[in-house]
Prior knowledge:
Blueprint: E1 6-11, H1 17-29, E2 33-38, H2 48-55, E3 59-60, H3 66-71, H4 74-79, E4 83-89, H5 91-99, H6 105-112, E5 117-121, H7 125-129, H8 131-142, E6 146-147, E7 151-154, E8 160-164, H9 168-181, H10 205-210, H11 214-217, E9 234-239, E10 244-245, E11 251-252, H12 259-270, E12 274-279, E13 291-294, H13 298-308, E14 313-316, E15 323-325, E16 345-347, H14 351-356, E17 364-371, H15 375-386, E18 390-395, E19 407-408, E20 410-414, E21 417-420, E22 424-425, H16 426-440
Parallel strand pairs: 1-2, 1-4, 2-3, 4-5, 5-6, 9-12, 9-14, 12-13, 14-17, 17-18
Antiparallel strand pairs: 7-8, 10-11, 15-16, 18-20, 19-22, 20-21
Bound molecules: cytidine-5'-monophosphate.
Amino acid sequence: MANGARILLIVGGGIAAYKALELIRELKRRGHESRGVLTQAGAHFITPLSIASLTGDVCYTDIFSLTDEAEMGHIELSRDADLVVVAPATADLIGKMANGLSNDLASTTLLATDKRILIAPAMNVRMWLHPATQRNVETLRRDGVTIVGPDNGEMACGEYGPGRMAEPVAIADAIEARLKAGGNIIALPPETQLRPASPVQSPPPQQMMSRANPKVASVPPRILPGKGPLAGRHVVITSGPTHEPIDPVRYIANRSSGKQGHAIARAAADAGAKVTLVSGPVSIPDPAGVEVVHVESARDMLAAVEKALPADIAIFAAAVADWRVATASKEKIKKGANGPPALALAENPDILATVAKGRKRPRIVIGFAAETQKVIEHARAKLKKKGCDLIVANDVSPETGIMGGDLNAVHLVSADGVESWPSLPKEEVAQRLVRKLAEAFRPA
Ligand code: C5P
């Protein structure tokens, strides 16, 4: 196949397994080849034959299958792809991945691979929200695994909430973005010499599973720097709203969707940068090829940004709450005879100003200004007050549909003047902004 990629698709056991078949079709439509691995649980929902028919290749199911081993050692299987995709990724598979367990072909392949991994979780809403699953997902994020979804919606079990596997088209989009972001290989330290995998060198499965190399297992994966105009640069981006707790169940929030900040993170990663995205609570998936730190409040966001520094560029696209409740109640505030409670507010730290005026100031600091009137005038004032190099200003009056929408019309306000762009998809605004940054970092 000329320009296509080779995807190893691991299909876990869940009702969403049927969507894996549509994913194979979608990947084929886009010119990519897939090869399937079906778990034992997955085989209760779809058959190896349906996967094999659609991929046009053997569907691997059993680590102890001598036929498969003779044709292809599973070390080779794990590395003979450009990307390993798990869809659906069940709570069980996620748990195994997070803890390095390997007792079947899917988990052994995932542990043995030196390729990037993308997973599309699918499970019951309570299983997804369970602290154990969330802990495991966080571990995978830190390990550099790209996570797509899950979506909110009605589940096969009748419950409603997050847990539905992302749609095949969205997974295929994320796969292409991940492939485009480069840094596909999980690098081991230079002193760790691995022989190239080949079927001849692969030991039998029993031997392989006991031949754990502790040196390899303890090394955190590292993304090899990608190629592109921002290769070698570190970009820190904030995105989404913040949630400021009133009590354990209530919070102050705003309507930011995170679409613009996430699009910038993705565009910067596509341009080869190492990207740390500090995201408030959003319902959109993490962009591929980006390290995402999930936070709730403004104070958590500031701490995460400071931890991510130093950086070459910082872009503050988050709609940070200006105020928080001075003392959030530890217990749920009850309705009482005294009428509504009075909530005393305290000012939140200004993350942009703190970083722009701080000791670790990145070379370029960009702020956003969401205004409903006198957009440029307010942006000019913010540029000065916050000490940044550029303010990306937009009108977020409800009639513009920008807040939460897919389009954005921005004005770039800097010391050099104002540059106004037409209404563009947020992805394009992101790409244009990243092109500008690349120009600023182009060697003279
Ligand atoms: O809310 P405001 O209009 O001041 O936001 C302007 C810029 O400042 C945005 O880039 C926003 O992300 C950033 N900001 C921040 N911390 C705050 C308030 C705003 O980083 N507490």
